[in-house]
Write a structure and sequence with these properties.
9 helices, homopentamer, Beta Polymerase, domain 2, Methane Monooxygenase Hydroxylase, Chain G, domain 1, 7-stranded mixed sheet, 7 strands
Chain lengths: ~350, ~350, ~350, ~350, ~350
Amino acid sequence: MKLFHKRYHQPGTRPGELAEPVSDIFSLDLLDYDATSISVKNQIDVHDCRAFINNGNVTWIHVQGDPTHDALLTLAKGLDIHDLYVEDVVNSGQRPKVEINDEQLFVILSLPVLNNNQVHIEQVSIFLTQNTVVSFCSGEFNPFQEIVIRLQGVVGKLRRRKADYLFYNLIDTVIDYGFPLLESYSERIQEIEDELLNTADKNVLNQVHKLRRELLLLRRRLWPQREVINEILRDEENNQITPETKLHFRDCHDHVISIMELLETYHEMTSGLMELYMTSVSLKLNDVMKVLTIIATLFIPPTFIVGVYGMNFDPQLSTLNMPELQWKYGYIAVWCVIVLLISGMLALFKKHKWI
Amino acid sequence: MKLFHKRYHQPGTRPGELAEPVSDIFSLDLLDYDATSISVKNQIDVHDCRAFINNGNVTWIHVQGDPTHDALLTLAKGLDIHDLYVEDVVNSGQRPKVEINDEQLFVILSLPVLNNNQVHIEQVSIFLTQNTVVSFCSGEFNPFQEIVIRLQGVVGKLRRRKADYLFYNLIDTVIDYGFPLLESYSERIQEIEDELLNTADKNVLNQVHKLRRELLLLRRRLWPQREVINEILRDEENNQITPETKLHFRDCHDHVISIMELLETYHEMTSGLMELYMTSVSLKLNDVMKVLTIIATLFIPPTFIVGVYGMNFDPQLSTLNMPELQWKYGYIAVWCVIVLLISGMLALFKKHKWI
Amino acid sequence: MKLFHKRYHQPGTRPGELAEPVSDIFSLDLLDYDATSISVKNQIDVHDCRAFINNGNVTWIHVQGDPTHDALLTLAKGLDIHDLYVEDVVNSGQRPKVEINDEQLFVILSLPVLNNNQVHIEQVSIFLTQNTVVSFCSGEFNPFQEIVIRLQGVVGKLRRRKADYLFYNLIDTVIDYGFPLLESYSERIQEIEDELLNTADKNVLNQVHKLRRELLLLRRRLWPQREVINEILRDEENNQITPETKLHFRDCHDHVISIMELLETYHEMTSGLMELYMTSVSLKLNDVMKVLTIIATLFIPPTFIVGVYGMNFDPQLSTLNMPELQWKYGYIAVWCVIVLLISGMLALFKKHKWI
Amino acid sequence: MKLFHKRYHQPGTRPGELAEPVSDIFSLDLLDYDATSISVKNQIDVHDCRAFINNGNVTWIHVQGDPTHDALLTLAKGLDIHDLYVEDVVNSGQRPKVEINDEQLFVILSLPVLNNNQVHIEQVSIFLTQNTVVSFCSGEFNPFQEIVIRLQGVVGKLRRRKADYLFYNLIDTVIDYGFPLLESYSERIQEIEDELLNTADKNVLNQVHKLRRELLLLRRRLWPQREVINEILRDEENNQITPETKLHFRDCHDHVISIMELLETYHEMTSGLMELYMTSVSLKLNDVMKVLTIIATLFIPPTFIVGVYGMNFDPQLSTLNMPELQWKYGYIAVWCVIVLLISGMLALFKKHKWI
Amino acid sequence: MKLFHKRYHQPGTRPGELAEPVSDIFSLDLLDYDATSISVKNQIDVHDCRAFINNGNVTWIHVQGDPTHDALLTLAKGLDIHDLYVEDVVNSGQRPKVEINDEQLFVILSLPVLNNNQVHIEQVSIFLTQNTVVSFCSGEFNPFQEIVIRLQGVVGKLRRRKADYLFYNLIDTVIDYGFPLLESYSERIQEIEDELLNTADKNVLNQVHKLRRELLLLRRRLWPQREVINEILRDEENNQITPETKLHFRDCHDHVISIMELLETYHEMTSGLMELYMTSVSLKLNDVMKVLTIIATLFIPPTFIVGVYGMNFDPQLSTLNMPELQWKYGYIAVWCVIVLLISGMLALFKKHKWI
């Protein structure tokens, strides 16, 4: 996940300026349905969309990838989308937000995509007006495939109800992508925790740091979604969202809060892991030092003793000069002293629970 | 306690989808009472419940374990419980919450169950409508046995009053399970504290970490209960809860806050314990290093001295070559120097309070 | 101070259940006064209180220790005290709170008692109705002796005004016991601070930890008192407290905030002390290591040198075999090298400011 | 960035006192335009401005650097700017703020200027009244050059709309200077992160500290800008800002929040880096200690053994005196013991994963 | 700065009790002025003040030091100051606060006085009623000398306007004393920062700790002033403060917030300094250990080698007994081995960037 993710213009640039597309992924799919019929147009040309708008059915246009400026402006013009919203769609890396006016709702959400244990964030923008929903999703991954299948399958609530219920389903889907993500994080934390109490090598440190960093960035990217759902729930002026759909949004609100709380908890937990790591390192150091101290303490004094009897004072010269060398049991006495010394120290270490 | 506890559906799944039961524990008990009479039906079939609902008495249906979808939907239909509430009952691991409409109250609570010093959380869902209370509790443990006994015993307030007072009693009971839990935590903290100041081994570290982790998870699971009671107290529209019962809910609110404050305090305390542990480890390291330093400092210089007189310069060759070897008191002088050196250093150590 | 202080019932117990008295300390004193006369009844029987209630004078009943259930219920009945309040009086360890209804005020406060440098918390419950004040204080220590003396002394404001002013005086007294407590804490912090910068032994660590723990617990116990005074100030419905007395409560509010701010500051300070301790330990370790390094660095190389000339190569055998041993000034040269080596290292150490 | 940046007067000085200019940079440019025509006057004398004010066109006066008191007071008088605002313009280092009255808006903003990887903050003050905008920018760098170019180029929205839109464009420009700054910070953090996991030398420590310090100061300086935009959005009384421009200010609000959130995240991240650094240092210490321990443990015991056979007990004197010296394979046996000892310890180290 | 600064009475003492003066510093100065005339009375007797009150001019009475109870009560009676305010004036160490009623304003502020790099806090109490301002300042230092001079100098706004403007000027002056204080703190932080990166001795630790402690205490003492100014700004009932003066109070509000933000920033910064210190100590320890490890690693193995050839196995006895001693180039070979060993290790150290 990038530290800095926002696409921005040089300060002083004209507001509403569109950023250049970063990839040539671009497809436009259209679903037009009511309870009785459904028509699906994949890879449709943007100019062919017009025919479906305001035909009484619910129309859902999904734009995947980076639309060309041309396609985007055509769409915006047909549906009366404000310049600033169009800019937000293109300049990806926006903060999740909702813009509500009397007849329209415009929502920007962050979609966390988990790919080979790498998380990245795609921007999903959803626009609701009358009977039409337009959704934009940057990148290659289309998060709404499940919904396309549900729409084409058995006729359920989703087919029978209006565009606001589709709008809710899209938002709910994007938000619910947080759950598998968090589950994978919980497993990673668990793994690191297990590893950490066994080994304390540099690799674990890197993992903890990476995890903390990811959670920090993720939290910032997902945090505003809570406010988005809140504002939709609180809004009284806009008449697009029916009370029944609002009840579902309350449920969605619970999900969004659960996700934030889990993220918060995991973030706190990784701080705890870092501390645990530091303490483990100190403990290891302690162990290393104990070994050194034990070895040194056991052998330095005996080495001194044998050094004494390596001195070249000549016992022949004077009886005061190292008479021990002349004793019959001198050598054995030295060994006894050494053995006693070492045993004494071992006993002392045992008493202090060092060994 | 699991890091990730929520049962969730794949993003894009139909709202209201029910999760499969995870165990085959399932029993349904019914109590139907007023001040004069009481009838208890254990292991009753769900279809037999209908007869008791709306008969003027207070009816309490308690569902333990994982109800079958069939039983659940029958019950929901009979009592007019919304699909989304039913989903919440089944998909355990929900955040505590309350849903209030004109005639119904639906509460989800977290029940901390302490089993062999292991804590796990069960989900309790309680539904109040008219004169009927339906309670669901996941897992094997039935927290309401005490209340069943009270209902069957001397006729008291609980028997004389309406379903809202039973509703309060159930909630109060679930929340009060926090107190014995916290008391057991206070004992664990106390034990770890005592242990920690004596030994600083890896085992204590693991205990502190586990404790902190549990308190962190527990706090998150119990925290929203405060808001639940708050909302019940604040609610003005719903007419189910009488003012007298609200007075009792105020008391319950005090309990919920006490529990949260204790959890908060214990959590802060375990952070303090981790710090204390780290400091203890450092202190221990200091002690180890002091021993090493004392030994090395005492013996390295004498070892050097005896090394000097182990050199093979021949005093016979020249009077400048190690004349000390020829002195009468040479050997004794060396010992004196060594003893003085060691004594001096010991004195120095004493002065610096190392020994 | 205990980690867990609340007396609670098993979950599911009947609300309003009274806990058994924990001690047999129990006395009941009554003061009945107006501006002109005062009558004091010590150790009065609870049934004799009735005569004084509603006689137009201010009646103050003070209950010290653990009242018997019988005495308590008699009193509660005579003064129309709600069951739940009676439960709160007996089940000590309650969170400070205020309950206000049209004609009554019921306040629970925490009284910190300092005894031989040990702090413990007693629960004070004060009940105000019409012209009667009833105060309960757990434990042996009666905090209101000063007020009894003032009432019996010169006729002042306290005698001339109504029960609400007495009520204020009792609350203010309980809260002001925080000041001498905090003063004693400030002295303890000061002492530990002085000690810490000199020695960094285990004893200081224990003191810092104990202090932090006490402040943490104390903060939790006293914190809600702020809200209590706030609610009394904000209350508009109850007509017991006159505007003039409210002005005094504003003053009391200042005290309560001052106490909380000091507690907060002291708590932050002890966290600082823990950090300071850790840093001191590291510094000490650094000093120890420096000594070891200096000794080892000074003596290990010379020991190697003298080791060289202790080798038994025979200079007689070949002129390449340790010819130094044959030199006239060999021994002196070795000493010179050693002295130079040691001096050089000492100079280096001085340059690096190690000695 | 300076720790203390505010220019202040001695306490007790007359309010409205102007600080002396700190540099002689001072230029005054004027642009007067409507949709059809534009006139640009660079380095205009302050007295010549009057002719342009209230001529129906939008008039923009930009003051760069430190204006003389004389020029400033002339301008203030001509446009009815309050004394206190004039003081704020001159006494740079003000906190960002907005002052709104019926006909005027006065905004102070912080402009972060990035110069050779050094950040400093310039104060930008913008004043809006009727059709006139006056902008002041301390220092040499003029942040509005892009806007001057846009005004002189193709006739766009900026030319067609009123002074409030210019006002918005100036504010938006100043705020957007945060984005390139944050991008450069994200790169610095990235670099330090990479460096840190490889080396842990003092240089990296200084960098982390400097970074943290800069982010802390920057956060404080930019934080109030959020409140500034908020107040402009909330304001209902002032009629200068049209609803259409307010929509743009909402966009600007998003930017300001994004910037603050990034700053917050980066600040948290640098705290994490400091911790990571500390842990890395501990790890390094651990490695160093392991090397020492391995060397010492491998060689201290063999050194003791060879010391034993360096003792001068005379095997000739008694058969108990070091008979090993007389053995045929004595020397080889010693070597075998030493090799075995070292191999054993190496095996032990391998088992403990030290090598 | 003292940890505990509040002068308090024993719990239970009569509210309004006055503390005894702690020093005999006491002087009372009076200034009576309007736009045309001014009369200054230094060291005036309190009874002579009456003549000036309510004479239509603005009357400013400044009381320095500890007033006698007698003087204070005379003044209070003449100006109708409430008992509790008088108590607050005498019992210094109050929390800053404002008391507003219909005709009076009573403000308590904390004046930080910097004396020889030692900060202490004096209490300033200012009372405004009708046309009279009474200011009390504990201690010796009179913060208002500058204002006395301004009043006696050129006739400006201060002379032409009413008592509320004088009131504002006094408050503004007290608050602005925060700026030079913070500037001196910024210099101290800077100095410590520079020192810290060079040396990490105990002295710096003490400085950092002292700084943090001072900032913590200072923050607590100054924090409530923000609320004081806020309340004056928000107040609608009191008619003493004119709208024009309120505009000045807004400016004062900015100052108070700037000061708090700087204090907050400096406090965060000193926490960073403590961490930096700890990390520096660890780095130093690392350096020390490296030196030890290098020395030990370089010399312990060669010492072992030379120890080997110091063994007394007799090469004459058997050809297997240390035949090396008999070799012609044995001694030189040993030296070669040693030199190779040391060079090898030096190369290894260089590779690991230890030297």
